[in-house]
Amino acid sequence: MAEATKHLSMNGGALITDLKGLFTVFRTRRSIAFAYGFMLAFVAFTVFLAFNPSSSNSSSPWFTSIFTTTTTPTLTDSSGSSGSHFSSVFSYFFPNSSSSSSSLPPQINITRSNNSFSQPPQINSQPPSKNNHTQNIDNSDKAKVLHSNTTTISRQESSSVNKTATQSTQSHDKAQALKANQTSTTSKPPPNTPVPTNQSTNSSSLVKENGGKALKNGAEKGLKSNYTSSLSKKQSNETNSGVLVKQSLENTMEALMNCDLFDGEWIHDDSYPLYKPGSCSFIDEQFNCIRNGRSDTDYQKMKWKPKGCNLPRLDGVHMLKLLRGKRLVFVGDSLNRNMWESLVCILKNSAKDPSNVFEAHGRHHFRGEASYSFIFKDNNFSVEFFVSPFLVQEWEMPDKDGSKKETLRLDLVGRSSDQYKGADIIIFNTGHWWTHDKTAKGKDYYQEGSHVYGELNVLEAFRKALTTWARWVDASVNPKKSMVFFRGYSASHFSGGQWNSGGACDSETKPIKNETYLSAYPPKMKVLESVLKGMKNHVTYLNITRLTDYRKDGHPSVYRKHNLSKAERKLTLKYQDCSHWCLPGVPDAWNELFYAELLIKENKMLQHQNQKRFR
């Protein structure tokens, strides 16, 4: 024990002696004071680093700049990398520091828009937090950057430990930010911000860098949803519009079906006439008043307006479709020829190729022959006219002196009846020839069988003739195939005499407005109506008698011929035409009424078919 103590004492003394020798050396260099100071400073500095590694909160800016990354990250493109030179050293000395991941300098990749007007991205300068979720860029700021600059920003961490969690958090946060601003980022940029040309490319880059396929799908679904919604609204509007149009048509048809089309008034309408005056070469010279020198035109701009409904304007294109493959025949006197020419002109004006509308025999004048036929080649139908002023046969029989005597066979229908009995639509008329002297007096003129009446009242003769016609229709016309119409008597307006005794109407340029000035309803039309009621087959009555009585302004009067000589001019003043009508003019309205009746029949047929379908 004593020896050990002795040995320690000896050794300790030697050590002390050695130290004293060392300090002697320092003392000789005159620097011992400086050495002691340096050593103390080094020890203090090392202790400070050991117990205070997180110095980001230091108030000394220069100190912070050395051992931590700058708060403004270095911006690089996708191919470069930069950061604090001390970061790897710091990680080496303090590998288990809780703040290591948050202290890593974020490397920021910026894929810039090709838009040369893009502004620098605004990046959050807030220092990193101490948790495991790296999020140095605020979500709202990201949204702003994407919104205003369409610049895709993604972050790459150098730490492999927290990389997955960091990217997941960033994708979620970016998705939330984009979701909140989806409309503005995908549909419309903010005001005064240039729209980049490669916005879709940048969006794709963002999705790829963040693994955000769900985000892309969500955006696409949003766009698709918006498009579908817009399309659905458009289709809904179109459907609603279609329903309204259909409802309007149904209401119009319902009104027409419950309306007296022939009780109304004439109104001025500048959209008339239905075809341009002078445009139809098929108008007979007798009716072509404009060409014959008539200068006033207001009579062409009058539309018939029923009191209880609106008369649809004649749609020539639609009527061509209704008549496709059919025969439409007019049978009667020159007033039906007036109506026939009017309809031919209306339909020709609506034909795709007017050159494919022509008279079957190449005729251009429509008086003197027993019948005429206009062919509408493109629509495969014809509009025909058969001359039959009485609807019964004009006859000749031997007189007592051996001469031939003209009579009217009240018991025989017109000779041409077999030629048109199979037509799809037949429009009959008669009336004016029953006012001539021979028929009005009724002496030795009317015949039944071999019997010639010495005298027969004209109304009775008229009834007998119509009864013969009615029996023929009931017996010979198939109601399942043919539609039959009868157009009523057309009023005349001779003033100061009749057609052959100085009657005139050349000074009339306005229609009658006051009903008290209308003529009495013709007794012959009352006879017609009673006959129609007794028929088996249905006949549609176009009762135009009263509506024509208003139109004293619509006759050719003195404008019956073109380029009159002086003698002819005097003759026209003496024999004015106040029975027929100028074209365009009043007969166009008759055809509009005829068209309305066709629409009514078509609607009834469709209703009947629908009822059968749902039974």
Automatic annotation (TrEMBL):
Family per similarity comment: Belongs to the PC-esterase family. TBL subfamily.
Composition-biased stretches (Polar residues): 147-170, 225-242
A Pfam family the protein falls into: PMR5N
Domain called Trichome birefringence-like C-terminal: residue spans: 311-596
Taxonomy, superkingdom: Eukaryota
Natural source organism: Dipteronia dyeriana
Compositional bias (Low complexity): 113-132, 195-205
Localization per record: Membrane
GO terms for MF: O-acetyltransferase activity
Name assigned to this protein: Trichome birefringence-like N-terminal domain-containing protein
Start and end residues of each Trichome birefringence-like N-terminal domain: 258-310
Keywords: Membrane, Signal-anchor, Transmembrane, Transmembrane helix
Any one GO cellular component localisation term in the record: Golgi apparatus
UniProt topology in membrane: Single-pass membrane protein
Transmembrane segments: 32-51
Region (Disordered): 100-242
